[in-house]
What we know:
alpha/beta; 321 residues; three-stranded antiparallel beta sheet; eight-stranded parallel beta sheet; 42% helix; TIM Barrel; globular; binds NADP nicotinamide-adenine-dinucleotide phosphate
Amino acid sequence: MKRSACLLMIVLLLLGISACGTSQQKSPEDGMSTDTRAEEDETQSSQFDFERKTVMLNSGYEMPIIGLGTWTLNDDAAENSVYHALKSGMRLIDTARYYGNEVGVGKGIKKAIDGGIVSREDVFITSKIYGGNYERARGIIDDALADLDVEYIDLLLIHQPGADDKGVYKAMEEAVKDGKLRSIGISNYYTKEQVDEVLSFATITPAIIQNENHLYYQNTELQDYVSQYGIVIESWYPFGGRGHTSDHFNNDVILELAAKYNKTSAQIILRWHLQAGFIVIPGSSDTKHIAENFDVFDFELSKEDMQKIQALDRHERYENW
Ligand SMILES: NC(=O)c1ccc[n+]([C@@H]2O[C@H](COP(=O)([O-])OP(=O)(O)OC[C@H]3O[C@@H](n4cnc5c(N)ncnc54)[C@H](OP(=O)(O)O)[C@@H]3O)[C@@H](O)[C@H]2O)c1
């Protein structure tokens, strides 16, 4: 997945971002008014390479912009979904220690490798660790590698803020140096203050912040703030999560756009996430849904239609972790 450092430098220079550690350099968008939001969206989406279906992270690694979420899937379901996601063309798989399915995820990847569908280098695996401290995190990283049955994890996130984030993050940074992890980041950090706290001790800038993010909770303020560090936001609950999906799929604006573009509601929502500059990881155990969710690269929402979806935001989260 690693492309030349030279390319990274060019991308970062174009974005006005320092590649070195926790640069405090401001982006040109700093202090942007809401009137310039539409232009900003173009800037955000231009960071995504829609041909390669990837984004270049501040770590120098390329990350797929759409993939499979595996929350609530047991080992068997995860193995099946992961295999079919890779077969459908997806290259990003999201799991976590907490999900208890890393063994199944690893088996699904191995099955796809053995079947000649992908090589290990083609697949981008994200996992997450939670709780603990420096010592414990070191052991958890090794456990994750063993359960996934891989030599390295592409991206490891602190699952949610905890008592010793500094110690856990330090263990993750050491694992990067040891070649066990490639990129690192955080999850469920919603405010500038929370991010600043992490940046105060980080020697490796987080590459990703994975947060609840959907039609009714569009945290563009955070996205604007962290763009100066080259940090990309990744959306969890892209459809609102189980129990809320029909509310999202049957939203009048989404139904109107689904008819207009001849796409499903799920595809309209996923395409909005991508054009808004959010990496997206829809969860599914249905192989037809997985293929459908990846089939979002043959159309583009107009600026006006993006604005219609942006107007649905009501700053409403479903979860409080
Ligand atoms: N960092 C965190 O704290 C955190 C928290 C929550 C989630 N996550 C990650 O984010 C991922 C996404 O969240 P999520 O899975 O909870 O919720 P989600 O992706 O918003 O919704 C999943 C639901 O959507 C349905 N679905 C998927 N594709 C569909 C399609 N094309 N048409 C109709 N229904 C479809 C799934 O049913 P089927 O199975 O029938 O397709 C499932 O019921 C998780 O899997 C997990 O990897 C992270």
